Amino acid sequence: MGILKERFKAKADADNATIKELLKNHGTKKIGEVTLSQIYQGMRGITGLVSETSLLDAQDGIRFRGYSIPELQAKLPKAPNGTEPLPEGIFYLMLVGELPTEEDVQYITSVLQRRSHVPNHVFSVIDALPLSTHPMTMFVTGVMALQTESNFAKAYAKGISKKDYWEPIMDDAMDLIARLPRIAAYIYRRKYKNNEHIEPNGLLDWAGNLAYMMGYEQPGFMALMRLYMTIHADHEGGNVSAHATHLVGSALSDPYLSYAAGMNGLAGPLHGLANQEVIKWIFEMRKELGTDLPTKEQIGEYVKKTLSEGKVVPGYGHAVLRRTDPRFEAQMEFGKKHMPDDPLVQTVWNIYEVVPPILKSLGKIKNPWPNVDAHSGALLVHYGLVEYEFYTVLFAVSRALGVLANLCWDRALGFPLERPKSVTTRAVKLWLEGK
Ligand code: CMX
């Protein structure tokens, strides 16, 4: 058993004891009330899940085990001469609950390198799809093809004891995370770079290797990938991708099946696909206005047009956050440091000045501020990654860290099958009539 497993198991044993005690003493306490409106409105505001890896506060934004994004940028180990945190560190933090040392992060990097081999049949399955297929469809198909490798599915078939589930789940989580950069880069090179592939570089870290295999060796892009993979990793338990992964995993579907389910949710335009929608929307605006740097007045008019056509302004709004997303701010800082004069990045900043007052004026939008997806695409375009349909795949590779760390926790804490109660409107009416 390696250090990650040992430390995770020790923490899980301690947490199990804490939860047992907590439920013994407080198990009947009420944590909230549910109104009729809430069950018709996407269960917004209902506390109904436990997710140990991160917690989202409407005002403070996301915290991973108590650490905010700026704190993580300062405290997590970095690559040699690197400026941004290594995402391996946030994976460790989510599993072990404490900040890793440089050696801990190096250990995870080496484990992921060792486990990164992708069997040939996965590439054959991806190759069988037409080139016009959306990259997220190729990605999830590749993950499904990789399910043949699941340790948990094999162990379950042999009759593993419940108390040991966590270990093959953790092996699957690490195998899958290790293999995702290769699958993502393969899809990118197949679809956009003439099917000319780049073999992994065994000396690079997880995010650096992804950049390398995609064909982007600039230090700036590698730094961006490390930041991107860190800040997109997790956003507590109720968002569509985290919740779907957790839900499917609760049926004891293995991590490959569960993660694929979650990523099908990430591929929706109200969730992770918003990062492609933002750049598509800006490109269309620039084309329509015939300029690379539209004025704030022009942006304002275009926003109003978008809204009048019954569409959302992509990258703005959030189901929980009620302020500018700290992940947007982290990317803005990156832009100021690396590319302050880039017209696309400047347009993102101009949109940031123009959109919130317009959305506020509509009166119905609970959060007029930008989310993570409002900024990411412009940074990628700066380094030449213009193929915006691919952006959600990068989000998916990062999100694996959070949702798979959560699956490890789900099984280590023995969480049961998830099965909330649903009602019909007829049943609601009868209930209101007292019948
Ligand atoms: N542009 C226009 N209208 C918006 C809006 C936006 N950016 N954000 C919310 N609204 C509208 C909603 O569509 C809803 O309208 P109706 O009442 O007519 O149906 C109303 O405002 C109230 O919505 P809300 O309670 O403020 O927001 P929700 O919790 O229902 O939805 C979200 C949250 C993110 C789906 C929504 O803000 C949205 O569609 N944003 C644009 C897409 C986007 O950026 N998604 C990425 C989110 C981050 C991520 O998961 O990656």
Describe the structure.
The protein is 60% helix and 2% strand. It contains 20 helices and three strands. It has helices at 3-26, 36-40, 69-75, 87-96, 102-114, 120-127, 135-146, 151-158, 166-192, 206-214, 219-231, 240-249, 255-266, 274-289, 296-308, 326-338, 343-362, 373-382, 391-412, 425-432; strands spanning 54-57, 61-64, 67-68. It has a three-stranded antiparallel sheet with strand order 1-2-3. Strand 1 and strand 2 (61-64) form a beta hairpin. The chain starts with a helix and ends with a helix. The protein binds carboxymethyldethia coenzyme *A. Carboxymethyldethia coenzyme *A binds at residues 239, 270-272, 274, 307, 312-319, 364-367, 371-373. Residues 239, 270-272, 274, 307, 312-319, 364-367, 371-373 line the site of carboxymethyldethia coenzyme *A (CMX). GO terms for molecular function: citrate synthase activity.
Provide the gyration radius in Å: 22 Å
Sketch the major β-sheet. Answer: 3 strands, antiparallel
How much of the sequence is in beta strands? under 5%
Bound ligands, named by name, code or SMILES: carboxymethyldethia coenzyme *A
Discrete helix count: 20
The CATH homologous superfamily of the largest domain is called Citrate Synthase, domain 1
Distance between the termini: 58 Å
**Record field, number of beta strands:** 3
How do the helices and strands follow one another from N- to C-terminus?
Answer: HHEEEHHHHHHHHHHHHHHHHHH
Family: Belongs to the citrate synthase family.
Organism: Ilyomonas limi
GO biological process, one term: citrate metabolic process
Keywords: Acyltransferase, Transferase
